[in-house]
Amino acid sequence: MVKIALSPEEKYMKEAIRQARKAEALGEVPIGCVIEYEGKIIGRGYNRRMTDKTTLAHAEIAAIKKACRAMGDWRLEGCTMYVTLEPCPMCAGAIVQARIPKVVIGCMNPKAGCAGSVVDLLHQDGFNHQVETEVGVMGEECSRMLKEFFRELRRKGKKK
Question: How far apart are CA 28 and CA 31, in angstroms?
Answer without folding.
Answer: 8
